[in-house]
Design brief:
This protein has about 250 residues and is α/β, with parallel strands linked by helices. The chain contains 12 helices and 6 strands.
Length: about 250
């Protein structure tokens, strides 16, 4: 996306909420539908952007930081429409049979705790309450570095699980979350998976798992998206290291 789609309160008011299936959204629904025919031994999760992160793309990531102070009503208008679309999108994934979504809200990681509580958490919570049930989960993802200070508002979303990036210490995050809440993370996807070696990944996994040993609610994983051209040897080394940790 290049430039701002929304620049004024008037443009926010007239911003149309596209139907699910418009543009590339239909491609991803088809992809999940196809994946479900091929993957039958584990959950199939779709991916969606979070409400504030989507609003930031529409208003511009830099500008929305200023707009939160100078044009908060405009930001909320865009957020309401973003949440409306994303809720419908998640419901469409649910209808085709997905077991849940990973909701990526990384731009919230740039906010202060007060702004995150005002401009992100309520909209994520609204989405979670609309779509999450015993057969469909929402996994909240945020790879920002300031999320340690946002723990309370993140938890208020009621997501089924929480996934964090390597900008924070996953063991530290675990200490701040209830023992019955799943916390996921956070081997560095660029420095380790893309640019290092199988031996390095095995060591990183071992160190992270040892640091989290006291927390049975952790799920070890890459901290964010696996970059293109990541060697398969490194991905295989990650899974082998996890297996070896649990099966010494």
């Amino acid at each position: 996306m290049v430039g701002r789609v929304v620049s004024t309160p008037e443009e926010a008011q007239t911003l149309a909420v596209p139907p699910v299936g418009a543009g590339r959204t239909g491609v991803f629904l088809d992809a999940v539908r196809e994946a479900l025919t091929r993957i039958t031994d584990r959950p199939v999760l779709a991916g969606v952007i979070g409400p504030f992160s989507l609003a930031a793309r529409l208003l511009d990531v830099t500008e929305i930081m200023i707009d939160c102070y100078e044009e908060p009503d405009m930001v909320h208008t865009v957020l309401e429409k973003a949440a409306q679309f994303l809720t419908a999108y998640c419901q469409a994934y649910k209808a085709v049979g997905a077991n849940g979504v990973i909701l990526a809200e990384p731009v919230t990681g740039l906010l202060s705790p007060a702004l995150a509580e005002a401009f992100s958490a309520p909209y994520v919570k609204e989405l979670v309450e609309a779509v999450q049930d015993d057969s469909f989960v929402v996994i909240y993802h945020n790879c920002g570095g300031s999320i340690i200070q946002q723990t309370e508002s993140i938890l208020s979303t009621g997501s089924a699980a929480y996934h964090f990036g390597n900008a924070v210490d996953v063991a530290d995050m675990l200490s701040r979350f209830p023992a019955d809440t799943v916390v996921m993370g956070n081997i560095d996807p660029a420095a380790q998976f893309r640019n290092d070696t199988p031996d390095s990944i095995r060591q990183a996994v071992k160190e992270t798992m040892e640091a989290c040993r006291a927390h049975p609610n952790v799920v070890i994983s890459p901290g964010c998206d696996i970059p293109p051209l990541t060697p398969w040897e490194n991905i295989d080394a990650f899974f082998a290291a996890v297996h070896d940790f649990y099966n010494p």
